[in-house]
Amino acid sequence: MDYEIINRVIEATGMICRGGFHPVESDAVPVRGQTAIMVGNRGSEFWRAFSQIDAPAFSNPLEKWTESVLSDAALELDCTVLFPFMGPPYHPFLAWAQRADNVFPSPIGPLIHPEFGLWHAYRGMLVFDDLIKLPPRGTETSPCDGCAEKYCLTACPVDAVGSNGDVSEIFDMPACLDYLSREEGRDCLGRGCLARRACPVGADYLYEPEQAKFHMAAFYAAHGHGSTKE
After folding, report:
1. Backbone CA torsion sign across 73, 75, 81, 85
2. Which one of 47-56, 156-165, 187-196 scores highest in mean pLDDT?
3. Which of 74, 131, 197, 199 is least enclosed, having the fewest CB within 10 Å?
């Protein structure tokens, strides 16, 4: 099996391969295999593919769609697929992503990519029995290292994000949810997180308005506020 062939199959779903790694015991990959390849999105390409289908009224249609299309792809490629949303226990996708791709923790939590910025995600991981040659990782350093302004840390109207050197303190969810419940929070709820939008990296991959609105509605509903299809 060849990485480019795998990527062509994945691109047909609206997603892309996001690099890979050859698992060792410390990676805690729960199935046997010699090669793991991350699958995800950059920008809104996958959203356009998803939004063209007539999604059933599931409580989480995007996850159901992702599970369906990647399971079909895994069957075609004769491999196993793992998902970040199945659990608990949940798989360590952020650790796997940093093994496979040139991404780094950002001051507000999500992994940042030197080209895509914060406008990307990981939707699954394919595990192959064979040892597959993988493309080299990028050599860029974290774009956050050279960012003196740190706009992401000052854009939130309620200071809900900020590391203070402690990962557990990066995100104040109650403050965020309270803000979203108020009239002032409509911009974030309708267009996406202000702190995330403040980052200048990856501006060309900014999520389309309907996609941003969908994700924010899903986040808001998932924590007991309102209702949504995701």
Report:
1. positive
2. 187-196
3. 131
Instruction: For 185-196, give the DSSP string.
Output: GHHHHHH--HHH
pLDDT in tens, 74-97: 999 999 999 999 989 999 999 999
CA–CA separation, 144 and 96 (whole Å): 20
What pLDDT score does 216 carry? 94
Measured CA to CA, the distance from residue 121 to residue 210 in angstroms comes to 17
Domain locations in the chain?
3-128, 151-222
Q: 223 is written with which tokens?
A: 């924590």
Residues 6 or more apart whose CB falls under 8 angstroms from that of 88 comprise none
Tokens encoding 101: 């791709």
Question: Of all helices (H) and strands (E), which one includes residue 19?
Answer: strand 16-21
Q: DSSP letters of 76-96?
A: HHT-EEE-TTS-SSPP-HHHH
Q: What is the pTM of this model?
A: 0.91
pLDDT digit string (tens) for 171-217?
Answer: 899 999 999 999 999 999 999 999 999 999 999 999 999 999 999 99
Residue of higher predicted confidence among 213 and 163: 213
Beta strands in 69-226 (DSSP E): 80-82, 104-105, 111-112, 120-128
DSSP state of 143: T
